[in-house]
Amino acid sequence: MHFSIQNILFLLVAVAGFGLFAWQVRKIRANILVGRDRDMSGHVNERLWKTLLVAFGQQKMFKRLTPAILHLIVYIGFIVINIEVIEILIDGIFGTHRVLSFLGPLYSLLTGTNEVLGALVVLAVAALWWRRNVKGVRRFTGPEMRAWPRLDANVILYIEVVLMMALFTMNAADLKLHGASLPGAFPVSQFLTGLLPDSPTALHVLERVGWWAHIVGILLFLNYLPSSKHFHIIMAFPNVYFSRLVPQGQFSNVDSITHEVKAMMDPSYQVPAPATEPDGSAAAPTPFGAKDVNDLAWTNLLNAYSCTECGRCTSVCPANITGKLLSPRKIIMDTRDRVEEKYNAPLIFNPNLYGKEAKHDPQEQLDRENHTLLRGYVTPEELWACTTCNACVEACPVNINPLESIVEMRRFLVLEESAAPNSLNVMFSNIENNGAPWAFSPSDRFNWADDLFVAEK
Amino acid sequence: MAELTAKRQVSVPMMADLAARGETPEILFWVGCAGAFDDRYKRVTRAFVRILEHVGVNYAVLGMEESCTGDPAKRAGNEFLFQMQAMQNITTLNGYGIKKVVTACPHCFNTIKNEYPALGGEYEVIHHSTFLQQLINEGKVKAEGGESFKGRRITFHDSCYLGRANNIYEAPRAVLEVLDADLLEMKRCKTNGLCCGAGGAQMWKEPEPGKKDINVERAEEALATLDGDADVLLNLQGVESTAPVLPAGSNRGGSVIAVACPFCMTMMADGVKNKERESDVQVFDLAELIASAEGLNA
């Protein structure tokens, strides 16, 4: 053990890195909790099983094989290589060198696997970069994928390559310095030693540079996550756990409306007392549906933080395919931008709303009255293009439900603003007056049965 | 026809009449607004009743006591109107002590099955595709003695509210199996099925501005599948197809797009018309196909 100033420095860096991350996570937790309450407790076994299949097992990724395999390599690489981070942390704090080497053959297996996975990750990341930037996969484009989201997607790939390079620099220099006496197996680095200088001093410096770059890189990456779509590596798990278990066609019933309707049909029905603040005063009435992010359920906001902007939802959306303005991915990205604008922002906050990449008329943005999720970010035209077909819900690899947010905003438009398209208002009044969405007389409802014959066999 | 088939007039049993006699039917056939008013879908309602009469199921309908389930209002965001409709229907159904509901409309099916229970309406709800599958499995319907579909091409269009919304993919296909036809799957089928464009209350409004109507995109896919036209299929991503209206040397008359939903029926039929293919491709509901294969039309 060589305890030195380096170890104190490392301890400070590690504490700062994890501390900053914890501070950012607290802000995001607060953002999610501004959403309306929704009871998602219970069904623990069913939820755990689903998390195991969909989040951990990436079940829904395998609907598209090529990206699924590339993603799986990076994902497994991430999990396994992070075991080595435990060693780095211990070595860094206590001044040890490869502390896990007492594991013997197991240590060789671990380091060997890490090296192979590291090389595969570099290849997979190169393929992913090519798909995004050269091949031009259609779902990586679209109005919401300019500016920050586009840069963010590439930054993640670059950081992953830098981290792998640091790992290989550290291992190759260590291997050249210690030769065969170095514990562990290095199937990739053994071919890289020739590229390094022969001077032991230079090798020692290189080994340290690689070591520091790897761990500092990881800490920086960790703190980059809350500003990035890459946050999905953490949020996918709670998001899948808290996703809906009911059939996709089942929409929520609004309880406050149930009370009103029951009271209308049965005058003796007792409507529950309105909610009160802790001090006993009446709570502000909550609107029907959603105008802004805090009118959505907390699970809808959790969705926004789990989105990795892959665009599978948008690429299967019938409205989007046929050129309508609606993009389910944009609804989810807008939700995250808006909650961070209104409440807590992470370290980097660069919403797509402003600047030359703006999606909306600048005059509209300045209109503070309407600067909410609905209208400020999401236009009624987008919402009315939805066929509620659930293709986006089915497509999402981490069980995000854009449809719920769309319907909540439609509810606000209809119930609070009476702002439905005119043809839908006609349909509503037909149902009210005729009990059918078309203007037919209820007395004609049974005419279909006239002169009906069946062949006798 | 060489010999005259005997036929009898059907007097559709009304729930109110049964209740007056103190009887309860085995199933309540929920007709739905499209089934009652839409001229095209009335033929599906009649075909389904012929099947019910043929197999001798003890059934009844609500007739004029039926009202919209509230589905279009709910999908459009009008929760208040939905719950008004729901409570009214639940009062009617519970008043008659209904236990089992069968409907030919996936929207009615989804709403009654999934959204009525929380408002006090709990029934066993079955879509007619599942019901027909049961009749076939029990040997009560054999698809014999009527029109032959042998060798004809049929492709099934999945309805969102049957498929993704309620995971019913196999029942309609099992029903089509007995026709002994040439069943073809569209590329976007089952969980990946493309909406016809009518869901979410789109049926009652003009589509938003875009480059194409959804039902045309879907009709093109269905037609290209029936034609075996790989080029059109490859290029279908919202791009208007430039394929000739009728492929040269086409001799594929009598191909069928099978549907199981009144709105899909309208949208697919309009799409086929848009492509000027109504002369050789027809859109039929499962119940119509079974009724004519069983020779029940009279």
Description:
- The complex is a heterodimer of chains A (457) and B (298).
- Chain A has 457 residues and is an all-alpha fold.
- Helices cover 57% and strands 1% of the residues of chain A.
- The N and C termini of chain A lie far apart (95 Å).
- By secondary structure, chain B is α/β, with parallel strands linked by helices.
- Chain B folds into 2 domains: 15-134, Rossmann fold (3-Layer(aba) Sandwich); 145-293, no CATH class.
- Helix content of chain B is 40%, strand content 11%.
- The relative contact order of chain B is 0.15.
- The interface between A and B is large, with 76 and 87 residues.
Mean pLDDT rating of chain B: 91
What is the percentage of strand-forming residues of chain A?
under 5%
* Morphology call of chain B: globular
Strand count, sense and barrel status of the largest sheet of chain B are: 4 strands, parallel
Strands of chain B, count: 9
Rg over CA atoms of chain B: 20 Å
Distance between the termini of chain B: 12 Å
* CA-based shape of chain A: elongated
